[in-house]
Design goal:
Blueprint: H1 6-68, H2 71-78, H3 84-99, E1 103-108, E2 113-116, H4 134-142, E3 144-150, E4 157-167, E5 170-179, H5 182-190, E6 194-198, E7 204-207, H6 222-232, E8 244-246, E9 252-257, E10 260-270, E11 279-285, H7 287-414, H8 419-446, E12 454-457, H9 458-468, H10 470-476, E13 479-481, E14 490-493, H11 495-512, E15 520-528, E16 531-538, H12 545-549, H13 566-576, E17 580-583, E18 592-598
Bound molecules: adenosine-5'-diphosphate.
Catalytic activity: ATP + protein L-histidine = ADP + protein N-phospho-L-histidine
Transmembrane segments: 299-316
Protein name: C4-dicarboxylate transport sensor protein DctB
Length: 601
Amino acid sequence: MARLRDGRWRVVVVALAVLAGAIAIAGRIATGQAADNLRDGALAALPLAAGTLTGEIEKQRLVPLVLARDDAVRGALRRAGTMEEAALNDKLRAIAGDASASAIYVIDTAGIAIAASNAGEPTSFVGIDYNFRHYFQEAMAKGAASQYGLGTISGRPGLYLASRVDDAAKPLGVAVLKVELDRVEANWRSSGFLVFVTDERGVVLATSQPEWRFRALAPLSAQDAAIAHEQLQLADAGFEPLPLRRGAGDGLATIDSSGKPRQFVEVVQDLPGAVPGWRLWLLTPADAALSSAANTARLTTLLGLLLMGLLAFVLTRRRRARRLRQEALARMNAELESRVSTRTAELTRSNTALAGEIAERENAEAKVRRLRDDLAQANRLSILGQIAAGVAHEINQPVAAIRTYAENAGRFLDTGKIEPVSGNLTSIVSMTERIGAITSTLRTFARRPGVAASPLPVREAIDGALSLLSGRIRDSGVTIVKPRGSASPVVMASRIRLEQILVNLLQNALDAMKDQPDPRIEIEIAERDDRVLISVRDNGPGLGPEAAGNLFMPFQTTKEKGLGLGLVISQEIAQELGGTLRLDPGSAGGASFTIDLRRIE
Ligand code: ADP
């Protein structure tokens, strides 16, 4: 069993107490309502029960009155002991039969019955002395009387209705009718209710419960008992109280019959039409109705409260679940936030580290740039060294030849031969031209510093180079195919330097296609990522593998008047612009060179 904390036990105990209290209250309310319903039914039945009784009595009440004025009755009383009594007996029998009275009889002033409806029968009243009867004395005194009592002869209960028979001024006797109320009582019994009549002292008279007859609602005082004895003329009646207990103010009566108490709803009414002082009581059984109403109400309340409890339980559970969910969510949020802040801190750290690395890398790159510049400078110096050596070699020859031509010219002059001198001088001029060509090329190469790079659309450089060579192109009959479209990527370069490379490439192509039947040069611009590729392709003889291998070496030339410096210088300029110049491999049927530069737009 789950252990409950003290607080919970208290809640459970209080809940059970509330439940029990609510069930008890619901039972009580339902019982009250059921009792009210029963009372309504009883009140509705009460006039019927009363009507049955008063109807029976009223039906007979006139009979003694009428007999009191009947001449035959008077005659018989006047002349007592004559034959008229026999005729009267017959008449009384006939009336009693018609009125369904149990007996009608006539008593003389001495109290002796002189005629009766039951004359001649074993239980005949004729000759019986009724002087002691209360009804006789009261009727004689007052003119009319009624008395409930037991028959002297029959011993059966009934209501005696008596009327005095008067002759002129003096009384002759009394006419009496006895109504036995068996039918009324049987009618009450069959109604299912418990019905009885009490006199003014509370003694039960007519009743659907014969054993209650002559018992009292409450113990009679000695005085009341004496009066009751006198009026009812019951010698041995004890007037014991009924086995009936009244509830305190709830209108319920309890009957203790055979040890088992049964509850009844009790209603009562006066019977003014019947006999003065009579009251009619009607009791209706209430046990079944009350207990079923109480049980239904208790069950309904229990179910209702259980349902409410269940609902409260479910709601509490749901609220708790929601609270737990929210707490979990809050925890997750907090965790997430802490993770985010941790991660942010990590990222900040790694950002800082990255920034450091970037700075380091920039430093390193700057260092590399410096190194590359140094290297380029060294390279340039080395090329310069090679060129200087080449130049020395190239110039030495013409200088030595010039010297030889000059010495020979001197000797010719000494010997007076003028003609060969002119030939020698022409050769000397051509030698100096050769030297001039070498130095002018070197001047171009040396012109590098001082030309600032700026954003340059490559088309402009291409157009510039083509216009510089326009005369030669026209003469050579070469078809120039310019780049398609109008796109002109921009590179960072000095226009003159880029034109120098292009002019050199175009000149080489023109040179290579001198004897070509259908010479053609295609210039293309391509963009790949952040690079701009300018290629110059011809359909000349191209280059063999060996020539291609030594292409960018100074003084490698196949031309008669070539210096073998153009490509070396062009490649140097391309590198200076942050790019490269290369021979495209495998270009079939001609040579193709590509200048590769960085695009800036
Ligand atoms: P030069 O033009 O003075 O010879 P370059 O360095 O410009 O010096 O060229 C070197 C050599 O490369 C040329 O002599 C030539 O043999 C070869 N060459 C260059 N361009 C081409 C070309 N388009 N077709 C064939 N050979 C070429």
